[in-house]
Write a structure and sequence with these properties.
Elements (H helix, E strand, L loop, with lengths): L6 E6 L4 H10 L4 E6 L3 H6 L20 E5 L4 E6 L9 H4 L9 E6 L3 E6 L5 H15 L7 E8 L1
Antiparallel strand pairs: 1-7, 2-3, 2-7, 3-4, 4-6, 5-6
Helix pairs in contact: 1-4
Length: 153
């Protein structure tokens, strides 16, 4: 099977309209959107190469959050982040309150957060929630230009 090649979309953190459009294009099971706080390729170059025991000791943790948005029933936001398991109050401790109907379904040290969102959630609500979670869960400061990778089936 051929590897999917995403459409790469840059957007300003404070002007996420291109991200919202990518979410709309991915809806109804047509694909998904990955979000990173900058150019993911460049960000990954800044992460030290894993040592020989990395896999045995739990894998390498990146110092920045990466988000994935899948629109469906329910829609799901996934956030892989460097803070490990957050516990019951981890998001609130970081100033994040999930919108009504958005439910945290997973909090795993290596697989991150999974948020189930109501079917009625708009692309704008999904984008806003994802960006707020990523702001709170990034381990370092980033430039204002972010990247969305749109994968279509």
């Amino acid at each position: 099977m051929a590897r999917r090649v995403p459409s790469v979309i840059e957007f300003e953190r404070e002007a996420p309209a291109p991200l919202i459009e990518a979410i709309v294009r991915s809806s109804n099971g047509r694909g998904w959107v990955n979000v990173s706080p900058g150019d993911l390729g460049v960000l990954l170059e800044t992460v030290p190469r894993p040592g020989p025991f990395t896999a045995l000791l739990g894998g390498q943790v990146k110092p920045f959050a990466i988000g994935t948005i899948v629109v469906g029933d329910p829609s799901v936001i996934g956030i892989l982040h460097p803070f490990g398991r957050l516990g019951r109050t981890g998001l609130a401790d970081r100033g994040v309150t999930l919108p009504e109907g958005f439910l945290q379904r997973q909090d795993h040290a290596r697989r991150g957060l999974l948020i189930h969102c109501p079917t009625s959630a708009s692309a704008e609500q999904l984008a806003t929630c994802t960006l707020e979670l990523m702001d709170a869960l990034n381990g370092v400061e980033f430039a204002s230009t972010w990247t969305a990778e749109l994968y279509l089936r």
